[in-house]
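Dear support,

Our group has been running a series of protein-ligand predictions, and this particular one with gibberellin A4 is the one our PI (initials K.S.) wants archived with full inputs and outputs. We had some confusion internally about which version of the output was final, so please treat the block below as the authoritative record. The input we submitted was:
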Amino acid sequence: MVVLSQTALDGHFSILIKTCKPPSAVLADIHTVDLSSPDAGALLVRACEDHGFFKATNHGIPAELTSRLEAEALGFFSLPQPEKDASGPANPFGYGSKAIGRNGDVGWVEYLLFSTIPEVFSAALPSALLRNRPIFQSTVEDYVVEVRNVTCHVLDLISDNLGIKPRDGISSLLRDEKSDSCFRVNHYPACPDSLQALINGRNLVGFGEHTDPQIISVLRSNNTSGFQICLRDGSWVSVPPDDTSLFFLVGDSFQVLTNGRFRTVKHRVLADHSRSRTSMIYFGGPAINQKIRPLSSLMSEGEESLYEEFTWYEYKKSAYKSRLADYRLGPFEKA
Ligand code: GA4
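Confirmed final output from the archive:
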């Protein structure tokens, strides 16, 4: 890994930029599930077991809503830096630039992080953002309603296929009015030529490798590449972008709910040297006091939980103390 000080390139920021080797492969056999097809449930389960990742088509979110949200987000990200900074620093909600989390992670990215809990949404959003961009706020709310609905539909299809009882056992965690879900809009500016030249043959990391702590994450991006997932054998593969589809990622909590049957997927984003990337991600999580343990209807007779029981509060607290690339389930695994 090469670490460069960016101070010389940009007087506004003094940060360390991480690079990594480009991956060699593109994910050829990406699981693609047409959500309107009768065999969607079986395909979803297989994808969650294989890679912890799949692409969903025919998801039903109006393209017009997604475009409107993307345009609003880009409008925000194109504001002068001091205006954006007035909506930050992200703690964890609000505007952040390059710094990710609280423990020293950095990336070639700027972002907005929102809570989906209505009271937190308004209270945690910096007044600068709310005052000046009310349409942005309502568009985020509209999009979150849509993406939550699709996600719950996907979770119900998975439950049907696995025989989980009740069938809305998992989706109800996301529908709970106290569900501690969040929503993120990431903007990865094109990496300037001068920086690219310095990096020379390696890639600038937009968002470093990590797994998501929640149950399930749903990503939509523009058509700029850079998103990669890590396969079971540890190799990294690029996921071809598709702005009409949604990409679903199994999170740490889903791995626990299924007692390891589904796999949380490690992923990262590399910056593109010529095109900027915009993505929006819904992170579906449970309420803060929810106990996370394997679903009893999924356990075979005599099967033991691989994890100590914990609440989402405990997991989140531990996650927010970790670095991005840490293996966060480790401390909760039974010896
Ligand atoms: C990864 C998934 C979500 O983006 C996020 C991230 C959070 C943050 O950006 O503040 C974390 C990261 C994420 C996992 C470990 C901790 C917390 C940064 C970090 C180093 C909002 C989340 O819930 O966990």
